[in-house]
Design brief:
The protein is of the alpha+beta class. The protein has one domain: His-Me finger endonuclease fold. Helix content is about 30%, strand content about 15%. The chain has four helices and five strands. Strands 3-4-5 form a three-stranded antiparallel sheet, with no helix packed on it. A two-stranded antiparallel sheet has the order 1-2. A hairpin with a 2-residue loop joins β3 and β4.
Amino acid sequence: MSKPKELHRFYKSKAWLVARNIKTSATQGKCERCGAIGEEVHHKIRITVDNVSDTNISLNQDNLELLCKYCHNEEHGRFKKKGKIFDIDGNLVNTDKPQ
């Protein structure tokens, strides 16, 4: 699924790149959940075509969170299928056995 044009433009904008860099610097490049290397700046309140122009949501540092790929995928429920959970590399995770 592709992003609507408004969101695509936002994520290419100078304002977003500046906000993203501020968050990355403020967190010293570490995931705010697990401490791993942060790679994704996540919007706590999801950006939509209806709110992308609202800078209190789209650019507000309090609405941004630096996450590693794993934590970002967990936040969005990615790689979970039919009750099975997959890690970031696509390997099946055994949820019956404590890690």
